Target: FtsW/RodA/SpoVE family cell cycle protein
Amino acid sequence: MSNLTTTTGSNTTVSSGGLPSRRNTELAMLVFAVLIPVFAYANVGLAINDKLPSGMLGYGFGMVLLAGVGHLVVRRYAPYADPLLLPLATLLNGLGLVLIWRLDQSERLHQRAENLFGSFTPDAPKQLLYSAIGLALFVAILLFLKDHRVLQRYTYISMAVGLVLLVLPVFFKPVNGARIWVSIGPINLQPGEFVKIIIAIFFAGYLMVKRDALALASRRFMGLYLPRGRDLGPILVIWGLSLMILVFETDLGTSLLFFGLFVIMLYVATERTSWIVFGLLLSAGGASLVATFEPHVQDRVQAWLHPFSQEVIQTTGSDQIAQALWAFGSGGVLGTGWGQGNSDLIGFAANSDFILATVGEEMGLTGMMAVLLLYGLIVERGVRTALAARDPFGKLLAVGLSGAFGLQVFVVAGGVMGLIPLTGMTMPFLASGGSSVIANWALVGILLRISDTARRPAPAPAPSPDAEMTQVVRP
Model:
């Protein structure tokens, strides 16, 4: 007797059911991402007016709508995307809306706005509108960007667009000493927020092609592999562009972000520590050079070195850093409680550049650490996405976007807390500002698309006709 066994030769890979999509996990975390800001909103109302806010239902419905639409789109068009990014962004955005609304209730800010502008306009409703626009862009990215590798085709186009956006503010009036805004009628845009995404696309495409040449070393000095002289060109060009931004626009934040982003991606692409050393030296040298003749940069350095000096306060015309440091000190470990702080004494930019001061005072050191941890988780998930990506362009782009996000958090938090000079940038998702929240929702959308492509199971190949006819005869 002999057994006749026919094999079908199905060389299957991981099936669609073999890897969980984690969408239900995302949904569960989104519930908390909505409930926490709604609870904070109720706390602010009770602290200020001894009653629940009249707009609590509308705010809660708006948060549920934003989170629900985002989740449904991700579930349908990016089912294998990272499950943490959307809840983290939603939670930060929701907390930012609460903080802005809390500052809108300040009588002192009302009085200052009326003295300066003749009337007071609350910022929370506008921020909710900007958040909806940002989520719409997030949805559009997931709908129309089917594969992130398509962006590689626009490497040099993105460079041209990025340079135009960087130069554009030069032709508009400065705001508070810095040329970072483009004002067309009622529309005010901060191009630097969008440039970080566009330039990351260019750097990813460029370094993917040039990384082998940039990784070559000519000699070793003090434990560092020094790059060849002709390979220093790219970093010197980017250094020069960042200095031009600092000189002509007096925009320290965008200059640091632009140059730092390139150094981070260059290090990841080449794995050469020497590029980090050169980057830090050039950054410190360039900033010191510009600070010797640019008054706006000098004022910010002096305000950083001597925040409580009355002479410096009179010279710069602002005691914002001193008030922010007092707010952090007043918060202690657990904070004064939602709606019970005095960070509105900061005045101008209390709900934008200095919104972390409100977090530090009313939520204390504990709340500050929690908020910074949320930002750290977004960066970590972005880096994890880069590690999981199967193509070099996706790896570099994910690292670039995560690095830009993390670098922006560092320069803003460092400036408000007195670690570095104030840069004038806004805290992602938390601070008031349409350009910031819209651009950061777009950044999260691209990261989700890359993570979906990285985690998506490879399709099973079609069965071979020859394999189906194979017969194995065993005695």
The chain has one domain: 20-456.
